[in-house]
Inverse folding.
């Protein structure tokens, strides 16, 4: 219902208008009246009517002055003037101010109602348009947010080329360029909850994490997307390595403060590897996901271990994980026995038959070995199973000598994995490259196809391919296609758009732009003046990674 306010210096007119109309029945609220514009001002401020009905000639402040003020202060308010003066100047002034209707006295209640309903309909129409615009803006904002989340998710998944990332980020005005990148993952997942009450606590924590991530995003201007209810992913940028380190430290400090404020939420932070190309952000993401997995396992184990140490009141039951990791990386076989004996000396008095603390201490060291030395076993498709086998060995330990044997075996196994990894990868990479050579002309050929061919997951293949070849799968595929395009341009008379299709691009315009970016020449220029050696030198250089 629309609120009506009447301003007229003639009390009889005010009473007639007020009493001769059933306002509520007609869909209006009669909010009051005033004898002149000056008296009306505070009433209008308080009531904020939808429609103002006013006379023109009144003492102190006339209707035109009042209308002029209201049009500026309340632009959505509709104004109807009823006046006994038909002079054109009055009407023109009223229209210039923005008055909706100019009616001459005397005006009957029926005529006034007709005008009021007309103005009311205009208000409804304007409000509907305004609401639609607000909904449209909200949808545009939501669409932009969704697009940003999808863009960052695809970037971390390795599904987009650098050119595609740059194009889409520009379309949503997202600044994604930096010299260095590192991905971090915030993870809330705990062990599986069996009880209904525990599930409720987990869901409450997930909602709390979402709220806190929003706060963190507002205070920390880096790229972020919500991967799931329990995981948020942050892409941290830096102009220098030192700047990146400072940004990462700031992020960790803010996260720690928010976690403490949220009653110590059990959050694990996975930190990926530093990358200097946009195309390799997904490698940092994969490293962060793997890191957070092992950190979560380690945290769960150390929580139990901490409780057990408190119960035993024996602070000497401690193994230096850092010393073990250092020996694992740079130790030698001739020092292995002496290192293990010295390292395990703190456990010599443990009664393995009556106490479980030794099992948790060894489990802690084992989990940390898997978390900190992923490069040694990256050929394993299911490292969790290998961890479980070691944990089963821990469960069978009953003496200190068996403890030393276990630690020796753990170290030797990691060294064996490290020695095997190089031969295994060279064969696998060769198979993938051969498969690319046979299938690059298919426009829908992807990392997924190659991963299926060598029986690996796409993420795993992507990471290994990048580590072993120093270029991403997409970069290598692009290089193969462009090399073939150069050959066809020189050896055939096929048109540029035909060659685009022959090398796997169904968009000739995209192919031409890509060809020029990577070779420094358009296809036409290359066919006329370019040489294969010249272009190949460019392909081997940095231009393949342009805008990374």
């Amino acid at each position: 219902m629309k609120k009506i306010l009447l301003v007229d210096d003639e009390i009889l007119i005010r009473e007639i208008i007020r009493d001769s109309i059933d306002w509520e029945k007609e869909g209006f609220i009669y909010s009051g009246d005033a004898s002149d514009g000056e008296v009306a001002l505070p009433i209008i401020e308080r009531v904020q009517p939808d429609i103002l009905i006013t006379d023109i000639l009144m003492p102190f402040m006339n209707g035109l002055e009042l209308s002029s003020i209201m049009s500026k202060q309340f632009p959505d308010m509709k104004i109807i003037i009823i006046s006994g003066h038909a002079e054109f100047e009055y009407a023109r002034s009223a229209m210039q101010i923005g008055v909706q209707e100019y009616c001459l006295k005397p005006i009957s209640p029926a005529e006034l109602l007709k005008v009021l309903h007309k103005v009311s309909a205009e208000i409804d129409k304007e409000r509907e348009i305004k609401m639609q615009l607000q909904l449209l803006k909200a949808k545009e904002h939501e669409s932009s947010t969704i697009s940003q989340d999808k863009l960052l998710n695809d970037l971390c998944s390795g599904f987009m080329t650098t050119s595609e990332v740059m194009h889409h980020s520009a379309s949503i005005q997202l600044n994604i360029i930096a010299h260095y990148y590192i991905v971090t993952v915030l993870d809330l997942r705990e062990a599986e909850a069996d009880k209904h009450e525990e599930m409720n606590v987990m869901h409450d924590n997930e909602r709390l994490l979402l709220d806190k991530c929003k706060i963190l995003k507002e205070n920390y201007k880096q790229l972020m997307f919500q991967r799931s209810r329990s995981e948020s992913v942050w892409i941290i940028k830096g102009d220098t390595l030192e700047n990146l380190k400072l940004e990462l430290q700031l992020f960790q400090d803010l996260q720690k403060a928010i976690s403490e404020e949220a009653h110590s939420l059990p959050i694990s932070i996975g930190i990926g590897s530093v990358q200097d190309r946009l195309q390799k952000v997904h490698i940092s993401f994969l490293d962060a996901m793997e890191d957070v997995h092992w950190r979560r396992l380690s945290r769960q184990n150390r929580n139990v271990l901490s409780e057990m140490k408190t119960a035993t009141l024996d602070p000497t039951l401690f193994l230096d994980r850092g010393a073990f990791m250092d020996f694992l990386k740079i130790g030698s076989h001739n020092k292995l026995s002496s290192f293990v004996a010295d390292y395990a000396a703190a456990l010599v008095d443990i009664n393995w038959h009556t106490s479980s603390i030794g099992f948790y201490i060894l489990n802690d060291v084992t989990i940390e070995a898997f978390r900190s030395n992923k490069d040694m076993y990256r050929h394993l498709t299911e490292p969790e199973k290998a961890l479980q086998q070691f944990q089963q060995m821990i469960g069978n330990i009953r003496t200190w000598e068996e403890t030393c044997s276990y630690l020796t075996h753990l170290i030797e196994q990691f060294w064996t994995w490290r020695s095997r990894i190089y031969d295994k990868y060279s064969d696998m990479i060769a198979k993938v490259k051969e498969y690319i050579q046979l299938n690059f002309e298919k426009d829908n050929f992807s990392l997924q196809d190659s991963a299926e061919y060598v029986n690996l997951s796409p993420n795993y293949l992507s990471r290994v391919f990048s580590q072993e070849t120093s270029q991403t799968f997409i970069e290598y595929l692009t290089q193969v296609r462009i090399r073939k395009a150069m050959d066809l341009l020189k050896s055939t008379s096929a048109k540029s758009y035909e060659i685009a299709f022959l090398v796997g691009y169904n968009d000739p315009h995209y192919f031409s732009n890509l060809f020029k970016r990577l070779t420094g020449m358009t296809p036409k220029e290359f066919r006329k003046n370019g040489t294969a050696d010249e272009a190949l030198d460019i392909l081997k250089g940095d231009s393949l990674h342009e805008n990374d």
User: Anything to note?
Assistant: The first helix runs from residue 11 to 19. Residues 137 and 143 are 10 Å apart (CA to CA).
